[in-house]
Amino acid sequence: MKTKTMYPKTFGKSLFTVFVLLLSLGNAMAQETPQATYHETHRPQYHFSPAKGWMNDPNGMFYYEGEYHLFYQYYPDKTVWGPMHWGHAVSKDLAHWENLPIALYPDSLGYIFSGSAVVDWKNTSGFGINNQPPLVAIFTYHDMAGEKSGRKDYENQGIAYSNDKGRTWTKYVGNPVLKNNGTTDFRDPKVIWDEARKQWVMALAVQDHHEFWVSKDLKNWVNTGSFGKEWGNHGGVWECADLFPLKNGNTTKWILIVNINPGAPNGGSGTQYFVGNFDGKTFHLDEDFKPLVSNGNAAWLDYGRDNYAGVTWSDVPKSDGRRILIGWMNNWQYANLVPSLQWRGAATLPRELKLVATPQGYRVAVVPVKELQSLRNIKQVFSLKNQKVKTAIDLTPQLGFKSTLSEIEISFEKPQSKGILEIEIANNKGERYVIGYNTSTNTFFSDRTQSGKIQFSDKFANSVHTAPRLSNSNTIKLHVFFDVASAELFADGGTSVLTDTFFPNEDYTKIQLKTDGTTIAIKELKIWSLKSTWK
Ligand code: FRU
């Protein structure tokens, strides 16, 4: 994130100018604050987006007493980035979200930047009452005035707690709990409980590396190590850390997540990760992962342009055992300009992270959470088996429902040496979005260059985005979700992932399968119409 100062312009003095100004200001305000209906142009229908105002990073996610909590960077008064609050929503199933009142407001110590939250089961913080574990949020205070005055220590970590299932939060009187000693970027604490060592561990993003801090009570923190100066991508500042173990059979690996802006493979904001071990003090990179991340190479959780600041839920019950991530479906390159009116920004779909052995070593596979299957409209499903596509099949008439809200699973034989398979969704205005696979480059791709409104930023549709294929299976599998203004591709069981947004002038309703002239053998295709969770 880059903060920008807006300087007031000098206005002419004539009464007429003042009148026109007031009129347009009135109009702008009227446009900015209508009642949210969730029917608005470009409004996602089964992703989380705030009713009104601006959102960026997901924050403080934890599960407690049947609810998945989602907080997020929020500016309620405008649809551009501004004084940061924590907005709040809850879900019982990761598919349907209920908006709750703002959880944290900025105060004299600063804006409330990104961070995490935990269930303090053992009441180590002492904030608990009535034998109930307190919920504790750990966030960055960003002192805007301090930054503007040239201070370097304008980011410090604070905590707040809740004793009522996250409905209200009290900031700790001893804030900040972790003070900055003069480092300009020192933010986005992600705290986990380290069961083996009975300690809290904080991963903190600090300029070009992550630092590790430990605590027994969430109030007193000691620095124990750092990782990253020499590894991975350094195209921009490191932000939003996460650290957690993932299991595959008897193998446990620790995953370190590093959001970085800019530096992503297709431009702007992106999420890289490292596979290794955590010894209670610091992170150690796996030997066989090293060649991948040296010289600026990195492993990316998502190759699309619109998945940033992703971190994972805390306290998902052991009986469930999943590690679930959600990101911000946007990119700092154009986030403040995207053409939605009443709100700006949405979350990605919640995704389960899995440790998988690939021909290239252990990697993190990313799949949509299984609860999303409840969105399928079981009466509106289309399927076919064993069919060859020579140039194109128009599925629109056969489908009988719109591609606007749809989910597609398709598997096909990998062509010998060349051949492109495309899924194209389009509208009556000739605007289209294309996602597919290219055999000669062995990449998945996403093309929004003719997707509709693209002029709002010259960075938005300046290239076709690609994701390398990791699997070497002869069957290629695409799993795609379309939701009004976004596409999320999970290919080959989540080993190649790509998330992109688009803004057509009219909803895409049509759908075609196309090839570059190569005959491609479809093994199986299924398309579901999905239900809106907001209407
Ligand atoms: C990431 C980020 C964080 C920061 C927040 C501010 O998108 O820049 O590093 O805490 O956004 O809104």
What labels describe this entry?
34 strands; 535 residues; Jelly Rolls; mainly beta; globular; 4 helices; six-stranded antiparallel sheet
Description:
There is one protein chain. The chain is mainly β. The protein folds into two domains: 13-368, Glycosyl hydrolase domain, family 43 (Tachylectin-2, Chain A, 5 Propeller), CATH 2.115.10.20; 378-530, Jelly Rolls, CATH 2.60.120.560. It is 6% helix and 46% strand. The protein is built from four helices and 34 strands. A six-stranded antiparallel β-sheet has the order 23-34-25-30-31-32, with no helix packed on it. Strand 3 (85-91) and strand 4 (98-104) form a beta hairpin. The longest helix has 18 residues, at 15-32. Beta-D-fructofuranose is lined by residues 1, 56-57, 73, 84, 113-114, 140, 187-188, 239-240, 309.
Bound molecules: beta-D-fructofuranose
Mean pLDDT figure: 94
Structural class: mainly beta
Tally of alpha and pi helices:
4
* Bulk shape: globular
Kindly state the percentage of residues in helix. Answer: under 10%
Going across the biggest sheet, name each strand in turn.
Answer: 23-34-25-30-31-32
- CATH topology (fold) name of the largest domain: Tachylectin-2, Chain A
CATH classification, class level of the largest domain: Mainly Beta
State the end-to-end CA separation: 33 Å
Uncertain parts: 2-33
**Domain module count:** 2
- What is the annotated CATH architecture of the largest domain? 5 Propeller
Specify the biggest β-sheet: 6 strands, antiparallel
CATH homology superfamily name of the largest domain: Glycosyl hydrolase domain, family 43
Number of strands: 34
Strand content: over 45%
